[in-house]
Each structure stands twice: as C-alpha cells, then as structure tokens.
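Entry 14. Structure prediction run on the chain below.
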Amino acid sequence: MRVIKLSRKPNAEEIKELEQMSSKCLTLFRENNLPTDTGDAKELAKSVRRFIDMYRENELSVAAQDFDKVNLAYGTGELYAKAIVDTYNWEYEFLEFEDGFAGFAVVSPDKLWCIYIHHYLHNLLHDQEKSNNSLLNYNMLDPQVLQKYKSEGYTSLS
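Output returned:
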C-alpha cells in the first residue's frame, strides 16, 4: 500500500487556474457541438467521453486539435471531476505520496478510492492504446458498487 504524505484542498490560485482551463475546454465543447450543461453531471460525463473519442479520431475543430495537450487534459479533467463530485459527492484534493507521486484527484468520501483526474484524462486523450472507458468508470463510482471491493485507502481507479 502506498503511504500518503499530504492531502489538501486546492488553494485559491490553483482553483482559479483550473477553472480557466475548464472554461476553455467548455468553449471547445461548444465549438464541436457537444452539450455543455455543467448542471447535468451525467450529460457532462457523456460530453467528456465523446470529446475524447472525437479528439482521438481527429474529428474536432482545428482549435481543439491544436490546443495544448497538457492544458487539454487539465481542462477536460476538471469537467470530468465536476461530474463525479456532483453525482457521487466525492471530494477534490491534491494528494502526494511518500514515493513522490502527486496530483489532483477526486476522492471517495470514505477515502478508499481515488482517480488522478488529470493523469487519467491525459492518458485517455493521448494514448491510442488506452480504451476510453471514462463513462464506464464514471458509472461504476456508485458507492453501492464500490463497497463490494476491498480497499485499504486511496486505491486508484485510473
């Protein structure tokens, strides 16, 4: 089991920067005729999945295809995180482990499960070998589904 060194909420500067990236990604979603209702978590998760598919198939606008790859992962990750937080009441934290691995994650209320949101979205966007299972993953986060599995804390689902 990995030992956690630090768990904290994002600070004001991080929040502002992450919100700017997600706002830019919402603009890219609109440009590509994808739903952008941030009040409908399930629809937002579907839009993220479709955006990833379109990106990987080069079916998006030039602006979306040319968008900085890291910022794209952060922006879409923020939208995906919002869908998870809104649906399942997960928390958004910055986690750092003693082995040096660190990143923003959505974390289950019981602190047993997490998704390193930006790493996960970066892999889905840019690794053609990785299956786009984002909507499946989203649907499986229901606490009644997860309680069937044993976890010792902060087990990554991504």
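The chain has a mean pLDDT of 92.
Filed with the rest of this week's runs.
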